[in-house]
Specification:
It holds the Pfam family SBP_bac_3. The protein has helices at residues 25-37, 48-56, 71-74, 103-106, 118-126, 138-146, 157-166, 194-209, 212-221, and strands at residues 2-3, 6-7, 11-16, 19-23, 44-45, 62-63, 77-79, 88-93, 110-114, 131-135, 152-156, 170-172, 188-190. By secondary structure, the protein is of the alpha/beta class. The protein is built from nine helices and 13 strands.
């Protein structure tokens, strides 16, 4: 499985029993899929912009990294049923919350986003006048925000809330961009992976129906993220 472990609470690194491990709600879901398949889960960590490439070249069977199943991506990959409906927010410095309350205020801002993601493309499309800083690592983007080098970071709302909860000087802005219908998180698979997709969909449906994926998110929120 290919993932990018810098996106708490979905996938991130944390000290577990004294060891640095990749954890998070998506990782627990991937383990449930592996258990259903009767195989050992092997996690390959990489930057987000390499995750789908790893899947496409056959180096991974699944890609699980908070990936939105966009129409463009569906032309190249198969996707599971959605397991999380996206909400995307701006993380800002707490002192600037009142400054960024509408889209006009963001037009002159320097906005960071993770390279190759839906939040990045949304900024390009909806805030063309803003300065976009595309970075490989989400932790790097947040560091740039804290250092005053960018004004906001565009990311999935649970990730933004996680950073805000752990950093007193950060907050989630009330302004947001318009989401496209259907841009939900799903597991990516290579084209024509019908048998594997059937198992993945079955597991995801159970996790959603029984509230298990939500419990994975709550469990992940209690863990402390560590940098690589």
């Amino acid at each position: 499985m290919a993932t990018s472990p810098d996106y708490a609470p979905f996938e991130f690194q944390s000290l577990v029993d004294g060891k640095n491990q990749v954890v998070g709600a998506d990782i627990d879901m991937a383990q449930a899929i592996a258990d259903e398949l009767g195989v050992k889960l092997e996690i390959s960590s990489m930057s987000f912009d390499n995750v789908l490439t790893s899947l496409q070249t056959g180096k991974a069977d699944l890609a699980v990294a908070g990936i939105s199943a966009t129409d463009e991506r569906k032309e190249v990959f198969d996707f599971s049923i959605p397991y999380y409906e996206n909400k995307i927010s701006f993380l800002v410095r707490k002192a600037d919350v009142e400054k960024y309350k509408d889209l006009t205020s963001l037009e002159s801002a320097n906005i960071a986003a993770q390279k190759g993601t839906v939040p990045e493309s949304m900024v390009k499309e909806q805030l063309p006048k803003a300065q976009l800083t595309s970075l490989t690592n989400m932790g790097e983007a947040v560091n740039e925000l804290q250092a005053g080098k960018v004004d906001a970071v565009h990311m999935d709302e649970p990730v933004a809330l996680s950073y805000a909860a752990k950093n007193a000087g950060l907050a989630v802005a009330t302004v947001s961009l318009k989401m496209k219908d259907g841009d939900a998180n799903a597991v990516a698979l290579r084209k024509n992976s019908d048998d594997l997709k059937e198992v993945v969909d079955k597991v995801i449906q159970k996790l959603k129906d029984e509230g298990i994926y939500q419990s994975y998110l709550e469990k992940a929120a209690s863990l402390t993220e560590v940098e690589e």
